[in-house]
Structure formats: structure tokens, C-alpha cells
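Protein 1 of 2
SEQ + STRUCT:
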Amino acid sequence: MLKSITGWTLSSIIFIAFIFLMIEVSAEVKEVKSLSSVINEQVNLEEIVLSNNSLIYDRNGDVISEVFRDENRVYLPYEEIPSVVIDAFIATEDQRFFEHKGYDAIGIARAILANARHDSIEEGGSTVTQQLVRNLFLTHDQTYNRKLSEILYAHELEKNYTKEEIIELYINTIYFSNGIYGIEAASRFYFNKPSERLTVAEAAFLSAVPNNPSHYDPLRNSEQTKLRQQWILQKMLEASYVTSEQYEEALDESIVLNVSPKTDLHPDYVTYVHSEFTELIAESEGFNQKLSQASTEEARQDIQRSLDERVQQLFKEGIHIETALDPFLQNLAIKSIHRQVPNSDVQASAVVLDHHSNEIVAITGGKDYRKFDFHRGYQNPRQPGSAIKPLLVYAPYFEDFDVPIQSTINADNVCYKVSGEDYCPKNYGGAQYGMVPLTTALKHSYNTPAVRILDRVGIETAFDYLAPFSFSHVGENDYNLSSALGGFSHGMTPLELTSAYTTFANGGNFQPSYAIRSVADKDGNVLYTWEKEANRVWSQATNDKMRKLLSEVMESGTARRAQVSAPYSGGKTGTTNNYYDLWFVGLTDQYTTGVWVGKDKRSSIAHLNNQAPHLQIWRELMR
């Protein structure tokens, strides 16, 4: 009886304690966060984004540049991953993948026993899901603490993603040595073909690498890779992923690597595309407006830093940039420059624009140009010499005074008082020609008529006509009579000056020329394009007169050596003081092309003047 009372008493006490404990636990549970919420505070399991290679294409749809930094990856959706690749990883890494919930208790138990026998961590027992979270969120340290985190993360990941989504992420995440991530990039790099064309033997060979990327590096340890490939094929056979016949054929097949390095063609053009892409983002996403409103240099630097980060983020997302590059003209420009300017200390740049579509089809950065070096096509402002006369002098004169093309102008010496000093320009050689037709003045590039015309038009009025061209290095300090002869403080880049000349091909309308046609995401959705809008600079009547004058320059003027057989051709030469720069910008019925020749460190190239390399390059390009 006493034992019975004692038992009931203890039971009552335990029951009361249990009730009290449950009340306390219930109160605490309200304050405790769920495991899912704790993990999601550490990492974002609901949105996993992998970096992807971006591609730049030419006008023919061919890839000219792959853009990536640390991870060379071409992301494949699940339905495009070859089944033989999935089978290889399931057979060797996680045969119960489609059954477990992120971790495999049997595998873990087996790993613990193996580790206990060896008194060290020899096996991990990790599932594909665990390996994925390790690659995405954790380190590769062999500790039980990391292993526990791995299991918890994997369990949560399986709540958010289907098995197909997990294997898709896994196969696009794993490392294949030599900076390669994912099966598609691996197939293209090691075998120079898409993964859909891999044989069973090749798929198993590549699947060997991620287990130990250094040890199974196909470039350095191909024999080791081959041994693991044979083991993988055996596992695939045991799991009935391949037949006996497929197994034997794969074992007998010779593995021949066909390494294809990163595609990186046309460095001159691609360098410019990178610069233009940054400008496109700056314009499209409001960075330019923020920069214009920045009140301090520090604020400008912060905005510029944000812009650069945005550009890099887009490149990591795997964008596709369609360009107007004409590979034939690009290569021809480079070859022609080398042929016509063999001197090691003399540089040159050529720009070819399709003025019908207002596109940059070719642009060179200089002889022996290396990607992202100083680019003479768009980063090198130089004084334009007489090549500025059609834009700053003659077209404004026709537009404001509506003079006939047969008009004459005084080509004798002249002097002006400028800031209390005499400014007395002279023609080449000091010659005086009296009254000459405008056609003669331009085609022989007489200096004194140009200065007289600029004075008559008015300096500010003439420079207003340059405003639509957005010459980035032209300022009010250039507002003087000497600018009629190209005497600018800095001048224009070859791209800027050539682009301005497209006005003569478009009836007096100006529209900037671009290399980028469109930017799309990896699924083909267009993200960015340039907004193209023409700006009338002068009338059709003025433009017709200018085209006549420019054609005279080529027929019987300073550019006779640039003549080509075309329905129309015209242009203007430019030579700066002491022969520091040689220019020719001209147009045909389809293209507007500019050529600059000079030295980076300004000095005379008079010895090249008689050879006229600028005219020869232009002629070879337009011929």
C-alpha cells in the first residue's frame, strides 16, 4: 500500500512538473525562431543566382568575345543538361538522390564508421544537395561543425526546390578545374563542342574532374582522370544507366582533348564595346543625370563606382550584346594600317561608320593593339587641322548667308587684332591667290579664306553648329579664329570627327553612331537599346553644296590619291602644324570613314606626308 501511495505521489509530481514544463516551453517557443527563419537570415535560399558568361556578337551572329572574370560558366537549364551527365553524377555521388530529403542517414552512418576506423575524417557521406550548399554557402573545411551546417542547409534547400532544380544548380555549380564551372563550359573548353554532343565516354571523363579538380585535371593528370572515368562507367553500369554494350564501347573509346581557350577576338572593337556599354547603362538607368547633378567630386566618384558595379553585375548575369562589327572591314583596317604605317614610332587609327544605319562597323585602337589599352580611336583627341573646315566654316557659311556655290572669297593674306595681338594666318608656303571660288578654297585647303569666312559667320554662331556633335574636348577656350584651321586646345577623337561627317551623308541631319545594336538577357529578352533620334544641323540645300565641295576635294584637290570607284565619294584632309597629325575623313554612298596618323608623343611626321598614308588607308578600306 505504501509503495502504491509513493508511486502515485511521484507520478503526480512528475505530471505536475511536466505540465509546468510544457507551460514554460510554450511560452519560450513563442520567442524562439524557426530553423528555417534562422537559416534564411544567414543565406538567401529562396533566390540562388549563379554568375554566367556574357557574350558579344558581331553583325553575323558570331561570338567575338566571352566576358567573365573568376568563373567561366555557361548555365544550362535542366532540360538541356544531357541525361548521361546527370546519370554519371547520380551513380557516383548520390544514388538515393531522388529519395532522400537532402541528407542520407545511411550514407552518414557509413561515413561515421569509416572515419572512426581511421580516427580521422576520411568520408563525408554528402549528398548532391549537401555538396551544392557547400559550394554555394559554406567552406570546404573537414569539420563536424561544417558537416552539421551542411545537413541543416540541405534539408532546408529541399523544401524550396524540386529535385530537378537542385541537380540543375549542382551541375552548373561544380568546378571542372582551369577556371571552368558547369558541364557546358567544361565541354566547350576541353572538347570544343556543346555538352549535348558529348559521348558517354567523354561525359564520364568530364564527370571525373569535380571529385578532385587538381588531381583529375584533364590537362595535367589525364591518366588519373581516365582511371576515375573507368570507375564512373562501372558505377553507371551497376546502376543500369548504361548497357553492357555502351559500357564496353565507352571503355574502348579514346579520349582526345580539343582545348578551346576563351573566345576573345577583335580587341580594338571589343574594348570600345565595353566603354559604350557602360555609357548605355549610364544613360538608360539615370547615372548620367545623377553625375550631372553631383555637387562634389566625392559624390561623383561614388556614383561612378555604383555605375561600375552595376555594369559588372550585368556581365555576371550572362547578357548577350549584339553589335554592328563587320569582321572583314575590321581586319582590313588593321592590315592596311600596318602596311601603310610601318614605322615603329608612328601610330594610326581608322573608324568606319555605316551612315545609313548609324552604326560603327569598324574601329581600331592603334598598331598592335591590346585589349583595354589606351584606344586611339575614341580616347585620343587631336587637333583636326583643315578637316574641321567643312563643319565649322563652310557649312555654317552656306546656311547663314545662303551664298551660291560659285561664290568667291579672298585668299590673300589677312591680319586680325586678337586680345591686343596680331593674328595673321597664311596659306601653305605663304602664297596669295586673290579672289577664288569657294570650291577652289576648300579643295586646295587655303587657310586665309577659312579664317575670313569664320570671322564673317561669327565665332559663337559657327560653334553653335558644332553643338549637336557633342565634341567632348571642345570648350569656350577654343572660341577663336585659329579654330578655323583646326587650332583647338585638344581637338576631337577620330570617332567623334568621323561621326560628325555622317551629317553630309544624311541630308544635314546628325545622329550619333553606335557599336551596340541591343543588349539581351540569356533568355533573349531585350534589356537595352540606344534611343536613336536625328537632329537637323543644316538644310538639305546647304548639305548638297557641301557634298559638291567635298567631292571636288577628291577629284582635283588635296585628296586625289584617295579616289575610289563609287557612285559618290568626297571628304576633307587635315594637316596640323609641323605635320604632327595627318587626317582624312570622307564618305561614299554607304560608309563614312576617318583615318588619323601621328605619334603618341607629338612630333613631326613630315617625312610621311608625301606618302600620304592616311589617304592610302582610306582608299584601301573604301575600295
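Protein 2 of 2
SEQ + STRUCT:
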Amino acid sequence: MWPKTDRTYSLQRRLLASMALGFVALLLIISVLLWSYARDASNRTYDLLLAGAALAVLDRVSSGPSGISVDLPYSAMEILALAPQDRIAYRVFSDRDGELTGTPGLPAPRDATLGSVPVFYDAYLDAPFRFVQQGRQLTTPTGRVWVGVQIGQTRAGRAAQQRALFLSGMGGLAVVSLIGLGFVWLAIRVALAPLRQLAETLRVRDPGDLSQIEGAPPREIRGLFDAINGFIRRLHANRQLTETFIADVAHQTRTSLSALQGQLSLAADAASFDEMTTRMHKADSQARRTVRLTNQLLAHAMVTHRADTGTLRPVALKPVVTEVLTDLLRDSDMRGITLTLSADDIAAGEDLVRGDAISLREALSNLLENARRHGPADNTIDVTLEPGGTDTVSLIVEDAGPGIAPADRARATERFTSISRTTAGSGLGLSIVRAVAESHDARLMLGTSARGGLRVELQFKRLLSQAAGRAVTALIVPVVALLLTIAPGAAQAMTQITIASATDTDVMTALIDRFETLNPDVAIAYREYQTVDLHRLILNAAPEDMPDVVISPAMDMQVDLVNRGLALPLAIPEALRLPDWAVWRSELFGFTFEPAVIIYNTDLIAPGTLPQEHRELTNYIRSNEVRLNRRIGIYDLRRSGIGYLFATQDVVQGLQASRMTEVLARANVRRFCCTFEMIAATARGDLALSMNAIGSYALAAAAKDPRLGVHFMSDYNLVMARTAFVPRDAPHADIAERFIAFLLTEGQRVLSTESDLIPILPYADVPVGGHIDLRDFAGSFLPIKLGPGLLTYLDARKKAEFLETWDTSVSFGP
């Protein structure tokens, strides 16, 4: 039997789909192997970065009188920065002194023996990490000591390369598979050509031709060939049966009409009135039989038609039965017959079946008519409607007539079969009932009633009762009502987000006001900190005290917080417009352009007289040491994160930084916490010049005060960006993400027109201060790149040594 479906399908497509599934299964097996290969290949590639960084660190480990020292090389972090999306962790230790620097307590490999051969292993911190451990022996005054380094990075870069290798390999396999499937399709079409020939033979055959199909088909479709011929034979037999049925119907109708015509003819030829009356009564009886036969034939045709047209709907049996019995009681032929209905055991809704009300009424009418016709004049007909179990309901009709012998019950439901010759009818009554039962997927059972007559039971499958429906409705309605009650009250309330920032409130006010205007349901609480204090606050904040957004110009400290896994990855399409140096890991975003400049007092230093290169500037300060004594301002590196960032980045640029530190110390420089203090001291004339001032602040001040000038170097000018991120535990991360997206879109326009800060997109097209065009210095700008390299001088040991050297060199206070 073919599966029931409203859609046809293609055997060719099914075969192709089966072959495709085979290809897919094969590709899955290959994909597992390819995925493993891609993982190993990416590990080998990125393990080289870890090994190179480990060797670079070990090369800077030395032993001296004060013990083992570690000078963390900038190159090691830059090597790791070749995987720009990965966070890093490192640790340097010895078997004698323990921890030397880095993150304590990093997981060790299973084989913890420290040796000169690098050991690679996977471990989990707050995310999956890949580590290398390698050591070297040092000769110290107390003997040989093993020093080891552990360096780890997250697996984002490896995973990306693994996916790229895997997808490229699978892409090639997919192309080959598609070509293979094309050849399979051609092979299937050739193999199925005999089926198309068979279809064409049947298509052009005359409808009346039911002869067998001749031919020698392939073995694979021989069964189909024989089945079609078998179906043709059955169809031929069925047509013969149909022709026989039509002939029987014609014969029955013709015989009945002929008998009626004969009685009428005899009545017309009657010699007396009494004889004519007798003939007319017989003609009337024959007319009734003819009408009944016609009605039964029409009913049988109607029931068969409605079964074929799919008219079944949910129907309650009790109203149908009541309606039929009510109509029957009005019939004069029912006089003297007792008719009863028992339906007390059926609760409301328990009589629901899937059926056709018209066909059900016809079946019940035929059962009642048969009971009346075959029973005695004082017949009793009992109609019962009762549950037959948990999922069925039965309609039972019983009478006090002669009944049907068990041996005759099977053929009693056949067409034109009448068991009793004395009360013979059309022989279609029970045949109609059987057709209705079959179309309703019901059981028809014949038996003997309690009164000795015929018992007919129709057992239907019951649908969900009304009581159960009411129970479901009773559960659903309160829930819907509750939702409708809650929904109107879910009005939006004002949401307050917190921004912790190391940027002056005055220059951020325009941005905050504009964001609140665009988002009237959001209020911003802005909290200002120094860069060092802000870094310490975020490191030590409990999850419930974490702000929603963190903003700071100290790029190295921001990278450190993100590298510790404290930032939330954001999906901000606007970040794609940022330069590569101003975004890291989709977590840290730069939004301003801040060159480091020299600001000077125009009364003390004539404009245009400052040197253009850092080497010449060193000579200039040395030559004017007396005049500039205690009149040069720099950042206090212990209090200013941005000052420490600029100072360490100057060191990265070359040896010129150490010479500058030397001449600044000889000139007894003064140290300040922030740019505003240096600008104010320079404007008063307390200072002749200030080094590495934040460009946006300096340019804005110089535009308002003619005593101030701003000087750019020609060899390089460091550029930092104020950066922002959303903490992983931010209470309102969605609104915080919206704020950072605002900083990179509408916020850039606000920065260019309503703030002293310089937007990062694009900085060159923004006039600043009205008297300096940044495009004139575009070739000298050296942006500080966000990434692991900035962690070099945040190493605790390296930072302590750097600051100690700085304090020793620059010993004077403000």
C-alpha cells in the first residue's frame, strides 16, 4: 500500500537523496578526521608562538649578587600578539626561590618535571588555555638552579585557524561530492529508463483496453511489471462486477416497474369494480416497493459517494439518534410498534465521533426500517447509546422479530440479498449500514437480541469528550487572563547605568546628554576616577558593585583588565570601522584620538624654536639646563596611568628615552598627577614646557589661552585612545553595549562638534582648536596598539624595577 500523502515524489530524487545521504555519511567520517588534522595543524602553528615567547623570556633571566632577575622582554609579548584575539597568562619561577613574576598558581603539566625541552599542554582557567612550560639552568653563587617559564594563551586564534583549515578542506570535498552526485544522477536516469518506457506504454493505452502488458522487463522491475498486470486483471474483474451490479440494478428496477405496469393493465381490464379495486391495491403495493427500491439505491449511492469525498467531521451521536427517532414516530407505519431510547449512560460530550451526520442518519433509518418490516405488528424496537470502553461508543438497535440465523449473517450485508422471502425487500438495507460502518472506521456486529430478534451494533471510535475539552479550557483561560492582566502593567521604567571613567566629567557631558536624549528611558550615573584608582577598583569590585561601562585612557591597564577575562564580548558592527590598533578581541574599543604633545609657555619659549626630533630635544634641554631648571613638567608615574603608558612606550621606541630621562633629571623636572595641572602651571609661567601632555586637552587650552603653545615632533608623536569596555558582570549589559555603539557612531559627531576630545573616526578631518590642523602631522603619529604587548611593563617585577629606576633618576618632587 502506498503511503498516504498529498504530494507526489520522484523516485529519481529519492535514489539521488539516498546516494547523497551516503555521500554525507562519508563526508561526516572524513570531516571528523579533517577536524582532528586541522586541530593538530593549528596547535603546531600556534605552539611555535608560545615556544618563541618562552625562549625570549628565558633569554632575559639572569643571576646576580641579589639573586635571580627577570627582565620581561617586550618582544615576548609582541610574539604572542601575533594571535591578536587571544588573552595570555605567564609565570616565571625557579625550583629554589619559587615565584619570580607573573600570575601565581598557573596549572602545571601532568609531567611536572622541569626541563629544557618545551612541554605543551591544555588547561582551563576562566577559559580553555594552551600552555607551554620550559626551563633552563642558571649558575648562581649557591649552585645550579632551574628557572622555568609557563606561558599560556586562549584558544581563539587556534580555533579560528582550525575552522579555516577545516572549511577549506570540506569545501573541496563538497565540490568533488557534487560532481560525483552529478554522475550518480546520470546513472540513475539511465537505470530508470525502463520505468519511463512502461509509463509511456500505459499513458497511450486506450481506457477500454484491459489486456495484459507484454514485454521482458529487467529483473529489478519484474515485480512491478507483474503487479501492474495483476492490477489490470483485478480491475477487469471489478469492472465485470460493476457491470453486473448495474445490470442487477437495471433488472430490479425494470422488474419492479414491469410488475407495476402489469397490475395497472390488469386493473384497466378489470370486469368489475371489486376486481379493479383489488388490482389497484396490488399496484399500490408494487409502487411502494418500487419507490423503496429506488430510495435504497439512491441511498446506497449517496453513502458511497460521501464516503469517497471525505466529509467526516466531529458529530455528536445522541442528537442524530433523537432526530431520526422523532421523525420515525410521525410515520403511520409505526403505529402499534413500541420504540424506546436508552442513552442515560452517555454524559455530555461522551458521544463525539468523527463522522458524517447524513450517512449516520441513513444507516439508523435503514436499521429501524428493517426492524419494522421484518418484525411483528406489535414489534418492540430498542435503541441504545452507550460507552463501549475508554475510547469507543456503541449504537445498538434490537427488535423482537425473527432475527437472522448465525449462518446467514455474513451474507445478510451483501447487496440485493434478502434472507426472509415473506418480507423480502430490496436487499440493500444492511448493505447501506455496512458501507457507513466502513467509511467511519466502525465495527458492525450482528447478533441476537434479548427479545429473540436481531441485534445490530455499530461501535465507533470516540473523540475527546466535551468534559475534557472544558477541563482544558478551564486551565487555559485563567493563564490567558493572567497574561492579559500583567501585560498592560509592564510599563517601562527608567533604567540607570553606571559609567566608571578616568576622563574629566566636563568633556564627557555632551556625550552623556546626547545619549540620554536618544534613550529617554536611560539615565547615566557618571563616576570619575584617576586611572590607577579605576584599575584597582575594577580588579577588586564584587559582581554586584561592577559598573556597566569602564572608560580609561590608560590603554595598558584596560588591556590588563580585558586579559583577565573581565570584559564581555560585544557584537557591534560599527567597530569594523575602527583602525586595527584601536580594538581588541571585540571587547575593548577605542573612541578618541589622543596624540602626546609638548605644551609650552609662549612668553618663555618663542614659538617655532623647539626642536623637531626627540634627539635634538634632548640636546636642547641639556643646552638650556640652567634656564629650564625646575621648569619642565612631567607625569608622576606612580599616580598617573597615562603617564606610565607614555613613558614605557617611549622606552620601546629606542635608547633615546634613557638619554631623555637623564637630562630631565639634571634639569630637576617637576612631577604632576594629570594633564590639567601641567597645563595650568605652564600657563602661569611656573613651567616653561610640559612633556607628553594629552593632545586634546592641550589643544583646547591653547585655543583659549594665547600664553600656551602646542608643539608636535616630526620623528614620532605617540597616540593613545580612550578605550571602553563592558564588564562581564555589568548589571545592564544590553544598555551598556548600546552606549559603546553610540560612542562609535553618533558619539563621533558629538565629539567633533561639542567636545574638546578628538574623535577617532576620522581624526584627520576634524578641525581642532581652530588654529592647528592635525593633517599636517599625520605622518608622525605613532598609535599605541591594543594587545598583549602592553602587558610587558605591567609585569609586577618589571614595573617595580622601572619605577625604582625612574624614582632614582627623577628625585625631585613637584
